[in-house]
Design brief:
Blueprint: H1 2-25, H2 29-60, H3 69-90, H4 94-108, E1 113-120, E2 125-132, H5 136-141, E3 144-145, H6 152-159, E4 163-165, H7 178-185, E5 190-197, E6 203-211, H8 219-261, E7 265-270, E8 275-278, H9 280-286, H10 290-293, H11 307-318, E9 323-331, E10 337-348, E11 354-363, H12 365-392, H13 394-420, H14 426-453, E12 462-464, H15 466-476, H16 478-483, E13 487-492, E14 499-501, H17 503-521, E15 528-536, E16 540-547, H18 575-585, E17 589-594, E18 600-607
Parallel strand pairs: 13-15
Antiparallel strand pairs: 1-2, 1-6, 2-3, 4-5, 5-6, 7-8, 7-11, 9-10, 10-11, 12-14, 15-16, 16-18, 17-18
Bound molecules: adenosine-5'-triphosphate and magnesium ion.
Length: about 625
Amino acid sequence: MFERLIEQVRACYENAADAKQKAEAAADPAAKTSFLDMEERWLALAHSYASLGSVERLSAAMPDGLSKPQERARANDSLRLQEVSTSLIQEGNLAALYDRLLDAAIALMSADMGSMQTFHPEQGELLLLACRGFHPESAAFWERVHLDSASTCGVALSTGGRVMVPDIEACDFMVGTADLDAYRRSNIRAVQSTPLVSRSGRLLGMISTHWREPHQPTERALRSLDILARQAADLIERTQIEAALGESEEGLRRFASIVESSDDAIIGKSLDGMITSWNKGAERLFGYTAEEAIGKPVTILVPPDRHNEERMILERIERGARIEHYETVREHKDGSSILISLTVSPIKNSEGKIVGASKIARDITERKLAEAREKVLMAELTYMNRVATAGELTASIAHEVNQPLTGIATKASAARRWLAAEKPDMDRVRDVLDQIETASYLASAVITNVKSMFSKENHDKAEVDINKLISTVMNLVSVDLRKHRIELKMELDDQLPPVLANHVQLQQVILNLVMNAIDAMRSVQSRVLSVKSSLNGRNSVHVSIEDTGIGIDPTNIDRIFERLFTTKRNGMGMGLSICHSIIENHGGRIWASPAVGRGSIFQFELPINAGEPGA
Ligand SMILES: Nc1ncnc2c1ncn2[C@@H]1O[C@H](COP(=O)(O)OP(=O)(O)OP(=O)(O)O)[C@@H](O)[C@H]1O
Ligand SMILES: [Mg+2]
């Protein structure tokens, strides 16, 4: 018997030592804490088994072969206790063990009925585990017992000590309560409830016995019950520890398998920069096996020109800081470069001291390539959008270019007329030639403007006068405005500072917004387009383009900036998504809202020093 017990205790200590070792080796802080918890639980379990041994020894030490009835009874009690502790050590069916404990309690107390409950601290209630002799309605009534119950177990729960009621009919706190009815229904006259308390003083449950007649148990019976209660408490505590151990082992197994199967490289390193752990993801990403990597300096992964970076990371970790999604370059075993995103967190020991770092590295080469592909695609689409707009604007453009050309033609024939006169008026001819020269400059400026606007390559940023830009665009669309009888209201702030931007792209934004506004007003009666510019605080310029059109359907408002979203028969759904990406690239923001009254208002803001993306 004892051998088995000693074996159990030894196994617990071995498991505890193993958990401690794993905690020391674990690179991940969460795993470390779980292993330390596990160690603590194994030790608690070891103590629980060890304490069983002392009860066993105690009951076994009771003298055998006694002849007097009183001594015989004592011997019977001790045998019963011994039997219970034996079955506790041998383990087995838990429900059967609870039954045995309960039967032993009823026998020790010479009672007619009994019940056992476990305590659930989160709910603050006792839950019925097993009962004997209760009327089914009483059993259902006491399924859960709260602090405010008038049962002996409820009172014992609130006082923390044993409660003995020799006669329920003479008990003050039961008068007129539903508990009294439940006792009567089960033919109970006397009852006691003894709390089951763990060695650390935690309430674990309750063991109660009941008599059909008024009854006062002897001191000896109560003492035996206390020994039994101790064993019951041990059993409950042990069951709880075992369940928790099972959970944390399961949790750690899951955790370990997550780390192992993670696509990301998860690496542990000590404060002197040595690799301490290496998962399969790291193997895949960097090409080294765990055997090759563990124990080597982490700099085997760092290109020589970035060794400083590794020192900077370690310094931050030593200060307890975390590094998140840091994009950098590392080296594969074969010497090739890998673009990665790094997240590094400190590893602390059980005293909270930082002893290393755990690194998660994610390969972002693919993502970067995808981003680059996206950029090319966007540039292509932006150009397509410009060409499409140019197609829509041919009438306007032709008009813009034609105006000075027509002027030149009329003026040239006028000049010819002056020259053909008998006395040519040379002064007038000179005047006309001057006008022709100006008009031809104007025509060429218009063509340059239009060409630059619809040219393909232009990423340069320069100081841009937003008001001038707006005027150019409005000139370009003036024919369309006239054709659709749209009234134009302009309120441009003449104090606007220049903005560092790509003027072709900004023109495209304004043009797209204006074209959308024109489209939106096709089917309405009164058509007004208001374009405003203003200084927003000291650091940004604000532009708004408002129409009195059909407005945006509220269900679409979140989608209009999405690429390919369109409600138009011939729309591409590109305009707004291009505006959005251009404005974002200039570090600004763009948004839409319903206009007061009817129509929509599109607004954007640009930082004055929008030179750098995201500035
Ligand atoms: N001023 C506006 N009033 C009402 N709805 C608008 C306005 N501007 C845009 N929308 C809505 O947003 C949608 C997307 O606009 P976007 O400019 O991106 O594409 P589109 O105009 O349909 O096509 P395109 O690629 O030719 O510009 C439009 O189809 C329309 O439903
Ligand atoms: Mg559009």
